[in-house]
């Protein structure tokens, strides 16, 4: 069995994917806009340039994404994405980048379980837990 996360960016999907490509180097393997759908009956009016479906990877982890209902208000409550950085320098760079238009909620610091830990909510409302081990 395989479980993948699907993120609804509520009208900001392409913006989010471009942001994550620049900051995290994500690999977008598929992106379909509503106007490209073979079944136009599935396409709400005015959604033509919005993302119907996208697949992308952060490292080895696969995600799906879309613009959802295009409400303009993504709601990513009840979960966080956990990113294991290779070094403190990389963790600081990622936290700084993700906090642009967002907010650092826990500054990177030593954790009781070893290593470093920090938390940031990005401009799209996704909360990221950043760790450095070793």
Q: Stretches where pLDDT falls below 50 for ≥5 residues?
A: none
Class from secondary-structure proportions? alpha/beta
What is the end-to-end distance? Answer: 31 Å
The tally of domains stands at 2
Number of helices: 2
What is the H-and-E element order? EHEEEEHEEE
Could you walk me through the main structural features you see in this protein, from its secondary elements to its overall organization?
- The protein has 134 residues and is an alpha/beta fold.
- The protein folds into two domains: 5-66, Signal recognition particle alu RNA binding heterodimer, srp9/1, CATH 3.30.720.100; 81-132, Signal recognition particle alu RNA binding heterodimer, srp9/1 (2-Layer Sandwich), CATH 3.30.720.
- Helices cover 18% and strands 37% of the residues.
- A four-stranded mixed sheet has the order 1-4-3-2, covered by helices on one side. A four-stranded mixed sheet has the order 5-8-7-6, covered by helices on one side.
- A hairpin with a 5-residue loop joins strand 6 and strand 7.
- The longest helix is centred in the N-terminal third of the chain and has 12 residues, at 13-24.
- The chain is elongated.
- It starts with a strand and ends with a strand.
What keywords describe this structure?
Signal recognition particle alu RNA binding heterodimer, srp9/1; alpha/beta; four-stranded mixed sheet; single chain; 134 residues; 2 domains
What would a concise description of this structure say?
With 134 residues, this protein is of the alpha/beta class.
